[in-house]
Amino acid sequence: MDRVKSKHKMRHDLAEIPANDTARTALSVALSMQTPPLTLKQASRAIGRNDAYLHQYLNRGSPRHLPEAIRYQLAAILGVDQATLAHHDSLPKGARNADISHTATNSAPLGLQTMSSVPFLDIHASAGGGTLVDASADTATAALAFPRSWLRKISPSKTDALKLITISGDSMAPVLEHGDTVMLDTDQTRPTPPGIFILHDGLGLVAKRIELVPSTSPQTLRICSENQAYTNYQRTIDEVQIIGRVVWFARNL
């Protein structure tokens, strides 16, 4: 995505929104403050609507108000309070004065400081026999936003060390399936304790469970698949490049 064009588009959206329409203004600002900025098309898809849904909402006033379920979805994605995306008559009566007055005086940060973006790399780790992939060609093609407090729970490393990639193959099934998205901690490149790592084993970039073999010199790794149809093997630690430990995964239903 062209970040310069994306930011320009967000400013254009803001310019067309009436100054007193705090809900639409809050949404447009929140989208533009993502890193990289989230387009209206991307956000519409993320909430399961057609590509033009949020463009029509911001620029054509349709729908007039965002449904409550949509507000909560967007709030979770953008790291904002759903009340900032609500019009006065969309909130429960008892919540209007407190929530809207809070929004009016504290709308600039929008809670976005609580989110961090993790880049999605354009590489596939083979959960199979290995594929010839240049691990240095890790160009980020997209990013997903996660709550920082949640990221701290799954990894002690800084957010910059976290990357997302896609699994290809079935050697790690049923733990990791073909098409799964995994998050790597690239600061964790030593298998102590053992775990699932992404590594280059000399033949390709693979997802495997690895552990140190005790009392070996040179130090040796045991590289294992979860799928028993695949053979386990060993490499000396100097023969492989460990990219990072898998700390989280996601799967389509």
TrEMBL record:
Q: Name one GO molecular function term.
A: hydrolase activity
State which residue ranges cross the membrane: none
The yes or no answer to whether the keyword DNA-binding is present is yes
Keyword Hydrolase listed? The answer is: yes
The protein's UniProt keywords, in alphabetical order, are:
DNA-binding, Hydrolase, Transcription, Transcription regulation
**Could you tell me which residue ranges the Peptidase S24/S26A/S26B/S26C domain spans?**
124-247
Q: Which InterPro entries match?
A: LexA-like (IPR039418), LexA/Signal_pep-like_sf (IPR036286), Peptidase_S24_S26A/B/C (IPR015927)
Q: What is its EC number?
A: 3.4.21.-
Top-level taxon of the source organism = Bacteria
The identity of this protein, by name, is Prophage MuMc02-like, peptidase, family S24
Q: Name its species.
A: Puniceispirillum marinum (strain IMCC1322)
